[in-house]
Specification:
Glucose Permease (Domain IIA)
């Protein structure tokens, strides 16, 4: 095949007409368009891939954040459950302690024979509320509310126990310092207070106390708490113990076989202070029991009643 290169105006029948400038332009234009298409396609593909990579990275980062938050939430829930379990255990212990306090309080009220309505350990402490106060729905703070309720109950019980203790202490103090009871466990009154016939002289004389006859060596008890102001041997009384009490009272225990306390010693009610004897002006084993108030003898009969 012959290719004849002619000018743009040259044409010959039966030959292939190729116009060099026009073909070149078309070829160049085609290559340019194809190159542009490739560049555009590459750019779009690169942009798509880059966006996809960025999205995947963002999604992965978001998943890591979610997983971390989920783990933190799990730890928080475990800590909350542990905290609630600890609070529940604390509430249970407080309730057990409260029950023991109630039982002790009721027992003390019974033993002290006090007013069980004044010291009622079975009721809630008195409280009030206003009409415009709004109630809140129960939530996880119920355990804390229970603890606060028990704390209020404990404060109420402790207050009642403190008043109960004060009353019992005052009662015990009064009982300890009040003159009551007999100076010996066994025996009988062999001589009364007042005017009588002296057993030694046979003449009328004033007897300042009561004589309790008993077995020699039997214990002699203090009829009230006090301080020993005299312990020794004196004419007439023999071995004698004198105790000073409250409200200006003193008691005297004479004719003892042996004194068991010393001057200045503090003695309790019912404490053994001497042994019954027959010393001094005495016709037989007995204890001379004398009560004085502000230094003046009074009839001991009113004080020898059982406590």
């Amino acid at each position: 095949m012959n290719i004849i290169l002619l000018s743009s105006s040259c044409k010959k029948k039966g030959s292939i007409d190729i116009c060099v400038p026009s073909t070149m332009r078309r070829l160049v234009l085609g290559v340019a368009l194809f190159s542009a298409l490739l560049v555009w396609a590459g750019y779009e593909l690169g942009s798509w891939y880059t966006e996809k990579t960025r999205s995947a990275s963002a999604v992965a980062q978001l998943r890591r954040l979610v997983d971390r938050e989920r783990e933190q939430l799990k730890i928080a829930r475990l800590e909350q459950h542990a905290h609630l379990d600890a609070l529940a255990l604390r509430v249970a212990r407080l309730q057990a302690h409260l029950m023991r306090l109630d039982a002790l309080g009721q027992r003390l009220v019974g033993l002290g024979k006090l007013d069980d309505k004044e010291f009622d350990f079975s009721v809630e402490p008195a409280q009030g509320t206003l009409e415009d106060e709004r109630a809140t729905l129960p939530d996880t703070s119920d355990t804390l509310d229970a603890m606060q309720r028990i704390e209020r109950l404990l404060a109420d019980r402790e207050n009642k126990l403190r008043m109960l203790e004060e009353q019992l202490a005052n009662r015990e103090l009064i009982r300890e310092t009040s003159l009551s009871g007999r100076p010996i466990d066994k025996g009988w009154i062999s001589s009364v207070f007042g005017r009588r016939t002296d057993p030694i002289t046979g003449k009328k004389a004033w007897h300042h106390g009561l004589d309790f006859a008993g077995k020699e060596g039997d214990p002699v008890h203090a009829v009230a708490a006090g301080v020993v102001v005299r312990s020794g041997h004196e004419r007439g009384y023999g071995n004698v113990v004198e105790i000073r009490h409250t409200d200006g009272y003193t008691t005297i225990y004479g004719h003892n076989e042996k004194n068991l306390v010393s001057e200045g010693e503090v003695v309790n009610k019912g404490q053994v202070i001497a042994l019954l004897g027959n010393t001094g002006r005495s016709t037989g084993p007995h204890v001379h029991f004398e009560v004085r108030r502000q230094g003046w003898p009074v009839d001991p009969k009113r004080y020898i009643r059982a406590p």
